[in-house]
Design goal:
CATH topology of one domain: Uridine Diphospho-n-acetylenolpyruvylglucosamine Reductase, domain 3
Largest sheet: 6 strands, antiparallel
CATH architecture of one domain: 2-Layer Sandwich
């Protein structure tokens, strides 16, 4: 391998900003969800197929290994490398809908849940539905042949494949849906296709091997390469395409996959059914297999104990208890009722107490619990331990004894906190346990356990060591044991046929190293109690505004762990801290959106704000406190600065000094608290937000009060976000005292006109006060107004605080009441303006909103609920953005 030559050769063709080689960033980008740690020598953020072909051709010349990665949520070590890591992200998110949604073409960088969101208007979805679908990207879903809760083996990528666009190790491109590309490929790669046909014929002519392959795929199986493709298809091109599915980036690069989509039934219901024993539950699974159910998820006693504080889960868990989460879906309510009735009849002999729920929030919560079991266990592990999840499959009629044997094996090796759950209808079990790798005796314990596990699954029950998570590194040493000498020899032959120089993800699936699964184990040193629960699963990344600019929450935590490890080891950390400042601190929006995606609610922003606090000097703290104590003066100085700077076009206009007339209607009293943002920053156009709100309150007949010291008041969030906690406390106490007095100790509700401030007040002020966000307040009062809809097409953006409060529907409700043509911004969780960070680090706002201009096409104006966010939204969408309350005021009159 000549890595230096490879690096030199690609620099002329690949944009320098896409080549990452600093130690800090290599560690960050090299981190994935598995329990392995390999640090790449180079990370390349590939922009397109041309970049990929360049990389492959140079890798081929220099024998430099490449590993492709999308979201990095894979669990088995197939997405880590100590060579060159090629990352695919926002550059790879194009899609095409065909045949009214029956077919979808997807690039590898699209998140699975996003694909389903695109297909939702057609009543369809992609077949694969892994638990990580909200974070996992299409490239990984296809490369691992991921399945999930409902798709079983009938709707995975292998079964729903309609076409692939791929690039071979030597740079050859094939688009299987383009006749000319197929014609050229058949000529150029005739030898490859001929060899695939030869392998097929050898399998057909070997009854024992043929039967082995057929038997292995009677149950869920993603171990090794998909040898079933040689039995299922005769055309060598079809064999090739289906071999690529589940090959974990070891045979080709997938640049696009075309799926035959499946129907997404609109009516859904589920029930959590508690059994007294695993035998009873598994017997019920066998019977449920005969009726029309969409999913049956098994959760053992230990799993249930993790969830005893969750509604619908029993508070008291008795020894041996097991739960089945039974899910049914249908195209109509009548059909759904028929399905639930069939399930009830099927389970009637067990005399169980359960109930199907159609209530969507309860339904979603039950599935959220099931999907979050893996990270929840990881979060409760002892400090310094790794969390490991394995994924095996047994014949369904052997599921009960196999599960009991698995439980005994876990206890034998002292994995007493392990949990077992999985897709019971398929005999597919996941089990999660925690393991320290800090001492050699612990590594040996894990090694002995894995040896016995392989024997249990393969020898005793003739099962599969991997049902859906992919072989990776942790099961590669056991492939010959599972498949036998002949079948494994075919797999090695396939690898050599596609990748003769072994440059594509070497050591994954095929390895000659019997100890591979025991090497390069990831250390998880304690770093800070705020983030020590993190298992680096990556679920947080899709919500992070800085993920495409610098680091994601997972990466911030991984780097901070390494910094603390080096510090404890006495290693100089100054260079790391220096780079961490921009990569992790300066460009963190600290918006808390990562916590909304994290199964254990880790808010990485809290760590960053804590670090910001520690960096402040006595002088800067004193300045912040002076500003807080003289807040009216501070605001006046900011407005003066804006007036001087706004002609440059870099900053918004300062708000006018306007007198506000308070409505004196005879209706209920309400307190209006205007945020400092709306008193400092002018709207993009039209009436100010305070005047719009007072106008609306007047139309609705309210009697309005405002704090007499309004100009001096602030919720403290601008100080808190920068780590000035003392200054923040000054403002918070001052505001609370003022509002308690004015509200008659909480008897009068308080309406705030800026969603981030409303959310902050709601979470920091005393519960005695009734804090309402203005959008939510007026969304419930639309019947008090006479509203005339406009024909203007508009775009709405729900800011992060509104999402965290669960109040996004308020924005939509007002917008739809005011206009017949409403679009909502999709796939952007946070705009990245982050208060005033959009002024100091505009690149964060730009990166987060890189896709909004496309979404804004066809819209005349945009509306939101935070003035600072609206500034960034206008800058990058190309349309003016104002408060939704201004629109409501313009469209309404008194009844």
């Amino acid at each position: 391998m000549s890595y230096a030559k490879f690096h030199t050769n690609i620099q002329a063709a690949i944009c320098p900003t896409r080549l990452i080689d600093s130690p800090l960033q290599l560690l960050a980008h090299g981190t994935d969800a598995s329990f392995y740690r390999l640090i790449p020598k180079l990370v390349v953020k590939a922009a397109d197929e041309t970049d990929i072909q360049t990389l492959l051709k140079e890798a081929h010349k220099t024998k430099t290994p490449l590993t492709f990665r999308t979201a990095g949520t894979s669990l088995s070590g197939q997405a880590v490398t100590d060579s060159v890591l090629v990352k695919l992200g926002h550059d790879w998110h194009d899609y095409t809908i065909e045949q009214n949604g029956e077919i979808i073409r997807l690039q590898p960088g699209i998140i699975g849940a996003r694909a389903n969101q695109i297909l939702k208007p057609y009543g369809r979805k992609i077949g694969p539905d892994p638990a990580s679908i909200d974070s996992a990207m299409i490239g990984g879903i296809a490369a691992n042949n991921a399945s999930g809760m409902c798709c079983g083996t009938s709707q995975n990528s292998y079964q729903t494949l309609a076409g692939l666009r791929l690039i071979l190790a030597d740079g050859t491109l094939l688009d299987s849906r383009d006749p000319k590309s197929v014609h050229d490929f058949k000529i150029r790669k005739a030898a490859l296709l001929k060899e695939l046909s030869t392998i097929r014929q050898e399998i057909i002519e070997d009854p024992q091997l043929h039967e082995t392959i057929k038997r292995k795929y009677k149950i869920k199986n993603t171990s090794g390469y998909g040898l079933n493709s040689f039995i299922d298809f005769e055309d060598p091109l079809d064999i090739l395409l289906h071999l690529i599915i589940g090959s974990e980036g070891t045979l080709t690069f997938i640049s696009e996959i075309t799926y035959n989509t499946v129907i997404d039934p609109p009516y859904k219901s589920c029930a959590l059914v508690i059994f007294n024993s695993i035998e009873q539950a598994c017997l019920a699974c066998t019977e449920l297999k005969q009726v029309s159910v969409d999913a049956v998820e098994l959760m053992d006693e230990a799993s249930l104990r993790c969830m005893t504080d969750v509604p619908a889960v029993p508070n008291i868990i008795e020894s041996g208890m097991v739960a089945l989460l039974v899910d049914v879906r249908a195209s109509s309510q009548n059909a759904l009722s028929e399905k639930t009735t069939a399930v009830n009849q099927c389970l009637s002999s067990y005399e169980l107490d359960y109930q199907f729920t159609k209530e969507m929030q309860t339904y979603a919560n039950l599935w959220k619990i099931r999907k979050g079991l893996f990270p929840i266990v990881g979060a409760n592990r002892d400090k310094g331990t790794s969390v490991i999840i394995e994924d095996v499959c047994f014949p369904l009629d052997q599921l009960a004894p196999a599960t009991l044997d698995l439980q005994k094996l876990l206890l034998k090796y002292n994995y007493s906190k392990a949990i077992i759950f999985g897709h019971a209808l398929e005999g597919n079990l996941h089990f999660v346990f925690t393991q320290s790798f800090n001492e050699q005796k612990e590594v040996l314990r894990y090694s002995a356990f894995m040896d016995e596990l392989a024997d249990l699954v393969c020898e005793k029950y003739d099962g599969s060591l991997k049902a859906e998570h992919g072989t990776g590194r942790n099961m590669a040493p056991f492939m010959e044991l599972e498949w036998g000498v002949k079948a494994y020899a075919l797999m090695k032959r396939i690898k050599k046929l596609f990748d003769p120089k072994s440059i594509l993800n070497p050591e994954v699936i095929i390895s000659e190293n019997p100890k591979l699964h025991l090497e390069n184990l990831k250390p998880i040193p304690p770093a800070d109690e705020l983030v020590d629960q993190c298992i680096e699963c990556g679920f947080c990344e899709s919500a992070c505004p800085s993920k495409d600019l610098t680091l994601s929450p997972r990466q911030r935590i991984a780097v901070w762990r390494e910094i603390k490890r080096q510090e404890n080891a006495g290693v100089g950390i100054k260079p790391w801290l220096s780079e961490f400042q921009y990569q992790a601190n300066d460009t963190c929006a600290a918006d808390g959106m990562c916590a909304t995606k994290c199964p254990v609610d880790i808010d990485t922003g809290k760590l960053i704000k804590q670090l910001r606090t520690s960096q402040h000097s006595t002088l800067t703290r004193s300045v912040a406190k002076f500003s807080a104590n003289n807040f009216a003066l501070s605001k006046s100085l900011i407005k003066t600065g804006l007036k001087l700077a706004s002609p440059t076009g870099k900053y918004p206009k300062a708000a006018k000094n306007e007198s506000l007339e308070l409505p004196t209607g005879d209706g209920p009293k309400v307190i209006y608290f205007s945020s400092c943002l709306n008193s400092v920053l002018a709207p993009e156009s039209g009436k100010s937000t305070p005047n719009s709100i007072l106008s609306l309150l007047d139309k609705a007949g309210y009697q309005v009060l405002m704090p007499p010291n309004q100009k001096q008041l602030c919720c403290g969030m601008p100080y808190e976000s920068k780590g000035f906690n003392d200054a923040a406390a000054i403002k918070l106490i001052e505001l609370q005292e003022s509002l308690l007095d004015l509200s008659e100790q909480g008897n009068i509700p308080i309406v705030c006109d800026n969603s981030p401030c409303s959310f902050h007040m709601l979470n920091t002020l005393t519960d005695q006060l009734r804090i309402l966000d203005a959008a939510s307040f007026f969304a419930d009062k639309l019947d008090l107004l006479n509203i005339q809809k406009t024909q203007m097409p508009l775009l709405t953006f729900s800011v992060c605080s509104q999402q965290k409060a669960g109040e996004s529907h308020a924005l939509s409700k007002i917008a739809q009441a005011c206009s017949k043509k409403v679009k909502s911004v999709e796939e952007i969780a946070c705009c990245g303006f982050a208060g005033d960070r959009g002024f100091s680090h505009p690149e964060l706002n730009e990166s987060s909103l890189q896709e909004i201009r496309t979404q804004a096409q066809g819209c005349d104006k945009g509306y939101s609920t935070s003035r600072s966010c609206e500034i960034g939204l206008k800058t990058h969408s190309g349309i003016p953005f104002n408060s939704i309350l201004q629109l409501l005021d313009e469209c309404s009159s008194s009844l």
